[in-house]
Amino acid sequence: MGPRRTAPVAPAVVPALPLPAAGWSRTVDVAVVGSGAAGLMTALALAGAGRRVAVVTKGALGDGSTRWAQGGLAAVLGSDDDAALHLQDTLTAGAGLCDPDAVAALVAEAPDAIALLQDLGARLDLDPRGRPALTREGGHSRDRIVHAGGDASGAEVTRTLVAALRDAGVEMHEHTVALDALRTGDGTVVGLRVARVAADGALTDAGDLRAHAVVLATGGYGQAYAAATSPAGATGDGLALALRAGAEVADVEMVQFHPTVLWRGPGARGQQVLISEAVRGEGAVLVDGAGARIMPGAHPLADLAPRDVVSATIAAHLAATGEDCVFLDATGLGAPFLTRRFPGIVRACRAAGFDLRTEPVPVTPGAHYTCGGVLGDLDGRTGVPGLYAVGEVACTGVHGANRLASNSITEGLVAARRCAALLAAELPHGAPAGPAAGGASSAGAVDPAARPAIGAATSRHAGVVRTAAGLTELTAALAGAARLPAGRPLDLAAVEATAVHTVATLLAAAALARPESRGCHRRADAPGTRPEWQVRLAHSVDAAGRLHTRTVPLGVPGAEQTQGVA
């Protein structure tokens, strides 16, 4: 059976938001939503090109997933490395769903992105020659990971870009949530309805930020799970907004589970402690409770296999033994080295009651990075005029079915620079077109009280290993999620619950529709990779909010294939 014979299980409806009335209107050239690496770099490059830019971020500037990144940024900088090797490593990790042209562009432009960070004042860790020090992570055939502060690479990238952006005089809208896109009658995006987030989560001072282009850089949707490595704000807001604006999203089933998340017990909820893959890159190994290694024989790279392989191997081991966790043993690296190289991880483990320097610490796979997102290209273009997406919120074809370690911040920076160059050159000056009047939503926002059950069901049925029966149960649970009670005003909790519900619905539909195991997507009832499924699953909603799914041949984002309702 090939992709053309996919049968929908049941119609799904994506909820919409009851928008507060706008009390004000402002006009800029470009509105950037999100302030991780991709959003900050996009805004900085556009401001440098003389464009009027506004940054909208629902927390403080620089909040988001980037500042939590431990490992670093992948780029070909070593004398024993070359672009062909980085390209091949990425394609291998991506398990047949990468776009080779997008990967080639990323690999070619990554060194310049690193150099720009240094020019902006990034304090990268250097080798004795004064060049960026390089290390290795899973799936890489060479040392090519640039880092800062040992294990604080994302924090240094964020610090550097925030400082540069504040100096650039960009208009900031902190503690402000983007609710929906403003569109003209033909569907062109011409701005955003936004609202200020009060300390208690209430939405105040709603208004329209009109722009020639909206760039989404809102990150992923790890918090659709009960527990994940991503921060609390990673609820898929941008993906849900794009879907409601008419964009397609793809590869949503490809959620990467990081193999080494500190195990805190079966009741762990919210953001979890991540132990960087770079620890294994320096020589740490995974062992069982008796101290026996578990990765040799599972993959030629053993503990440095791609993340999907390591996570699946751990999951299989736990299922076979009934154990709750495995252990990461870094004691052979020595306490002085671990303290110097991984100071943040050592502190986090000690705060949880474990000492990485002197004992194996308990770990288990946890939801980490979302390879799918708004379907587009590496320049940020989506299928909707005026709407662009960069960074983790975007599906550019770089990551395919499984992200190669430390390609994420690099991709965000490269895509941001490309998107900014495109917009600076092509956007008109003057005021954008006026939006059309909004219509009534077909389904209300999700009640925040339903969110814990959504996260628990997603974790249970759409984790490292999935089945059709479990995904069908997840779909039914999502369909029955309570809506916001009549008369209750929209607040941030309802916005995020609605986004979480939306991405969980997409995830369940996509994972159910792909009857194979590929990359991050593992089906216990369909364990093999099937060549006829080397396609993207793209999703859109119609005017009634009903979800439609089609297959997209690789490298052809707009190609028309099967249509159906999922």
Please give the structural blueprint.
Blueprint: E1 25-33, H1 37-48, E2 53-56, E3 73-74, H2 83-93, H3 100-119, E4 134-135, E5 145-146, H4 153-167, E6 171-173, E7 176-183, E8 189-197, E9 203-216, E10 227-228, H5 237-244, E11 249-250, E12 255-262, E13 270-271, H6 277-281, E14 285-287, H7 307-321, E15 326-329, H8 335-341, H9 343-351, E16 361-370, E17 373-375, E18 387-389, E19 394-395, H10 408-426, H11 451-461, H12 468-479, H13 492-513, E20 536-541, E21 547-552
Parallel strand pairs: 1-2, 1-9, 2-6, 9-18, 10-13, 17-19
Antiparallel strand pairs: 3-5, 4-5, 7-8, 8-9, 11-17, 11-20, 12-16, 14-15, 15-16, 20-21
Helix pairs in contact: 1-4, 1-10, 2-3, 3-10, 5-13, 11-12, 11-13, 12-13
Main attributes?
globular; 566 residues; 7-stranded mixed beta sheet; Flavocytochrome C3, Chain A, domain 1; 13 helices; disordered C terminus; alpha/beta
Quick gist of this model?
With 566 residues, the chain is an alpha/beta fold.
Q: In angstroms, what separates the terminal alpha carbons?
A: 18 Å
Structural class: alpha/beta
**CATH fold group of the largest domain:** FAD/NAD(P)-binding domain
Number of E-type strands: 21
Amount of beta strand? 15-25%
Reported for the largest beta sheet, the result is:
7 strands, mixed
Low-confidence stretches: 4-9, 557-566
Helix content: 25-40%
Query: Quick check: average pLDDT?
Result: 91
- How many distinct helices? 13
Radius of gyration: 22 Å
Q: Judging from the principal axes of the Cα atoms, what is the shape?
A: globular
Q: What is the domain total for the residues?
A: 2
